[in-house]
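Example A, followed by Example B.
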Amino acid sequence: MPVLVLLLCTLFQTLCWGAVELQIQYSAIQKVLAQQMFANQGRFYVKGNEKTKCSYAFLENPMVGGAAQDTGPGKIRIQARFQGKNGANFFGLCLGPGDSFDLLILATPYFDKGLIRLKEVEVSSPGKESFYARKVREAIEKQLPARFEYRVADEAKRLLERERPAEPYTQHLREFKVSSIRVSADAITLNLDFTLVVK
């Protein structure tokens, strides 16, 4: 085996001898979630915005973790606080019902075209069952799969193609795929399949 190949096998041993695993801690997923969906003063607006004082609905304080085993295999858990008001401005007064309660979101992560996305989203409001709560849950179940994405292929490309000034060669990532995703108590683990071209 040429010296360069031996060197690469030493540097990237898992590439030569087995599958590569990438572990993404829930703290990283929580940061992506906050950046993409909770960027408006830490809030994710399902309805209205910070200017609609009488008619709004938003989530805040998201916490991401692994779901309990009895909720189904391969799911992550997102907990958040909901606040909303469905009112109208009447001579300067905001009149109408409002509510606040905790939400529990369960979702299955999957790989799609370079992204980790969420599917099979289930939203519950423990201890809170009303028409208003049901409409909130339906809105989140619809919006979350469309808006969350973790750019895992871009992140792998950035890490593996990083320049090494002391070395005479460069690396180029090709055919990046995620063959499976495993959910544990503190992270999701991706089994990666890719080709690293050395020039």
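Example B, a separate protein, is given below in the same form.
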Amino acid sequence: MSMAAFQRAISNNRLCNILTARNVRHFLKGQPIGGRVLEIGSAAGLTTIELARLFPSAEIRSTGHNKEQLWLARQRVNGSNISFGQWDPASLPYPDNYFDAAFEIYNFRCLADYRHAIGEIYRVLKAGAMFYVMDLPRRQTVFSRIFPSSSAFTAKEFYYELKEAGFRIRAFRETSDAFFIKAAKA
């Protein structure tokens, strides 16, 4: 997965980060999350910071593909409970049933094989653990024009892929620019 210069600039833009952080806080408000947490796609660490604020007792393992973005994330994020690694979400270096929760925030749109990544996340989550998804649908929106998708999917297609992998959908919401899913490992 490569990130164009324009995409890097937007993903590091203060206003975009404020809006994303607001969405993350709203989406995850009141969720009882602790233990081991997997974040798929840390980018420059701004969503990682928000996850650490929301869940201070969680042990956060964050993945990313872009070396430059991971370097920025490591510079921005402090905490002994947070670590970053350059891993492919379709091939995670963790044992089965390892994580208590997983997050995917505006990242799967960049993956060539998002279906396999869904299966990998299912594998590393404990039974009953939640997978929280915030992403951009295939339809043309302001954000999808800025962040073109290599694995274009609609919100409903993603919903059904989660079900096909074995997840139980707990909540689904689609807005004009994004979709939000809370799914539990069966």
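On Example B: The first strand starts at residue 36 and ends at 40.
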